[in-house]
Design brief:
This is F-box/LRR-repeat protein 15-like leucin rich repeat domain-containing protein. The protein is an alpha/beta fold and 678 residues long. 33% of the residues lie in helices and 11% in strands. The protein has a domain at 4-61. The chain is built from 27 helices and 24 strands. It has a 24-stranded parallel sheet, with helices on one face. It is globular.
Length: 678
């Protein structure tokens, strides 16, 4: 009786008069709204479902696409006719037929394509793509270890190509890169790192033919100084990366002095080149009057002669000397440079003392970023000098500076109000230090892992004074309890990442508090033995943007925690649930998350071979799964081959069951990101 078919014309007219006010917005205004929703796919989706006009506008406005699989392009392309950037990093197998479909669908609009995680295509598909999509300016073929010269040479047809990434394409040779050089004369960026069969000949061809190059990455190539004269003659080259090019040494570089010409180089990376000393460096940069950034990490000692090479480079703003040996005479020479540095990295440098740092910062008072990680000889005097001289610091990294006393950290808050990033991991800071640092209201990254002198009182000061914090690391800081986490969740609404691993004082109450942080993307709670599925369920329901989750050794988390994750955490990409009390049922639910890419599932007592097989089959988006070796015999070779063909690599670990011990896993902060550890 309420069917629309019985509505009278007058009633229809009345209903039409109550149309949504959004229907009167112009396309220009709608597009402006969509621009503000660019980084939030869920908001864009909700926006498009408001009305037919919004749906159509979102379709026309979308310029980038990152499909979960390669097969739906034929159905997706009619809805999105204006795609200019196609990211296929989630598609492990991209066949020629797919690339042909892409070149048909977006022939006139496509400008960028990323195939760095894709396989299965040949020169046929790539040739069709580059000849049809003449507007292509960016192609990423990195990690194409099986790509040969026959595939690479078709890129010569991409006449308008400006950026090309071939990192770790270990099979291509001078022949293939020579074809690229001849055809792609508009190249501005070229990355060839780890292309181990490209020699001076290929690099020389690139430098000769591609005169528009701005950035060139030759890291780990077996090149010598023979190709450098041609490279340095490139009039527009601003960035040159020669990391670990062991074929380049002082003797060869000496010849460059005779053909020295002024160049436009601004950034030079010579890290891990121990064969280059002051004489070689001097020869290489003699014409680089515009040099702004220099990386000499893991190289020769910074002696007086080495430092003198850079004396007259007044535009130098940033230098990295990580793991180099500093001499006092070298430091004094750096202090006398004409340049006023803005970035200085001395991480793990031998020879850094209070005297050295005092000399440096008194000269380079405009420093914005300073890294003194693992400079274990510095004391209160260094922090006093740094904070007195460099009050405009925005980033200070000083992990494991174990001789710096508690009272020194008060100076940081008193004198460096503009700090945005502060790493105090494994130091003696206490609550008074945190109270002072809470004055740094711009702080967005704060690392307090293994800080055993802090507790909730100090963290409450941070929560009340630093509302912009996005990343907070409290790894093994066992003085923190639920009270401190509750204060953090309430005072830092922008929080995106928090690490509270290995703290037995953290309970479900903390997770319930954190569930109010709607922007939370990464949560590290491994080894928090008092956390259960109750807290995890709260996170799943509240933190819809969660992408990385580590619950290893949370033994009270079971299937009841997996079901809410499957229902609400549609953005989850990486999870470690080793040692949890999860069974086949929970794992099967978890694997149904479309975005899930990486899983580590060691020592799940409730997992059976059948359950594992079912979960692997359901997880169509999985790319990397770490498993215990005991399951390998249960999965037939044909099944393992099928998983590999689908793009999922199974990593087998023969790790014995570990009883949780507080003195283990201290290497978490040694360059590992969340979820990397097993």
């Amino acid at each position: 009786m309420f069917s629309n078919s019985h509505s009278t014309p007058s009633l229809n007219k009345k209903l039409h008069s109550f149309s949504s006010p959004f229907d009167h917005l112009t396309e220009e205004i709608i597009f402006a709204i969509l621009d503000h929703l660019h980084d939030d796919p869920f908001s864009r989706k909700s926006f498009s479902l408001l009305s037919k006009s919004f749906y159509a506008a979102e379709s026309l406005h979308r310029r980038s696409l990152r499909p979960l699989h390669s097969h739906p392009i034929r159905t997706v392309s009619p809805r999105y006719p204006s795609i200019s950037k196609l990211d296929l990093t989630l598609c492990p197998h991209v066949e020629d037929s797919f690339l042909i479909s892409v070149s048909t669908a977006w022939k006139t609009t496509l400008r960028s394509i990323d195939l760095s995680r894709s396989r299965s295509f040949s020169n046929v598909g790539l040739s069709n793509l580059v000849t049809s999509c003449t507007g292509l300016v960016e192609i990423n073929l990195s990690n194409g270890v099986a790509l040969t010269d026959s595939v690479i040479k078709v890129l010569a047809e991409a006449k308008n190509l400006e950026k090309l990434w071939l990192s770790r394409c270990k099979s291509i040779t001078d022949m293939g890169i020579g074809c690229v050089a001849v055809g792609c004369k508009k190249l501005k960026l070229l990355c060839l790192n780890w292309c181990l069969h490209i020699t001076d000949l290929g690099v020389g061809l690139i430098a000769t033919k591609c005169k528009e190059l701005r950035s060139l990455d030759l890291s780990f190539l077996p090149i010598t100084e023979k190709c450098l004269p041609t490279i340095l003659q490139l009039q527009h080259l601003e960035e040159l990366i020669l990391e670990e090019c062991h074929g380049i040494d002082d003797e060869g570089l000496e010849a460059l002095k005779r053909n020295c010409k002024r160049n436009s180089l601004k950034f030079l990376n010579l890290s891990r080149c121990p064969s280059i000393s002051h004489s070689g460096l001097s020869s290489l940069i003699i014409g680089s009057e515009n040099l702004q950034k220099l990386n000499l990490s893991y190289g020769s000692s910074i002696t007086t002669d080495m430092a003198k090479c850079l004396h007259n480079f007044s535009g130098l703003q940033s230098i990295k000397l990580d793991c180099c040996s500093l001499t006092t005479s070298g430091v004094k020479t750096i202090a006398n440079w004409r340049a006023s540095l803005k970035e200085l990295s001395l991480s793990k440098c031998a020879g850094v003392t209070d005297e050295c740092l005092s000399i440096l910062v008194q000269k380079h008072k405009q420093l914005r970023k300073l890294d003194i990680t693992c400079c274990r000889k510095i004391t209160y005097g260094s922090i006093n000098s740094i904070t007195s001289s460099c009050s405009f610091l925005v980033s200070l990294k000083m992990e494991s500076c174990s001789l710096v006393p508690r009272e020194a950290y008060v100076l940081i808050g008193q004198r460096c109000p503009y700090l945005e990033e502060l790493d105090l991991t494994d130091n003696e800071i206490d609550n008074e230090g945190l109270k002072s640092i809470s004055k740094c209201s711009r702080l967005s990254v704060l690392k307090l892992g293994i800080c055993l002198n802090i507790n909730d009182d100090g963290l409450c000061h941070i929560a009340s004074g630093c509302p912009k914090i996005k990343e907070l690391d409290l790894y093994r800081s066992t003085g923190i309890t639920d009270r401190g986490i509750a204060a953090t969740a309430g005072g830092c609404p922008a929080l995106e990442m928090i690490n509270i691993a290995y703290n037995d004082k953290i309970t479900d109450s903390s997770l319930i508090s954190l569930s109010k942080c709607l922007n939370l993307k990464a949560l590290e709670i491994r080894g928090c033995c008092c956390i259960s599925s109750i807290g995890l369920s709260a996170i799943a329901m509240g933190c819809k943007q969660l992408t990385v989750l580590d619950i290893k050794k949370c033994v009270n988390v079971n299937d009841d925690g997996m079901l809410p994750l499957a229902q609400f955490s549609h953005n989850l990409k990486q999870i470690n649930l080793s040692y949890c009390s999860v069974t086949d049922v929970g794992l099967l639910s978890l694997a149904s998350i479309n975005c899930l890419r990486n899983m580590t599932i060691l020592h799940l007592a409730g997992l059976t071979p059948d359950g594992l097989t079912a979960a692997l089959l359901v997880g169509s988006g999985l790319r990397k799964v770490k498993l215990h070796l005991s399951f390998k015999s249960s999965l037939p070779p044909s099944f393992r081959k099928y998983m590999e063909t689908r793009g999922c690599i199974l990593y087998w670990r023969d790790k014995a069951f570990q009883v949780d011990r507080d003195d283990k896993d201290w290497n978490f902060h040694s360059g590992k990101s969340m979820g990397d550890s097993t």
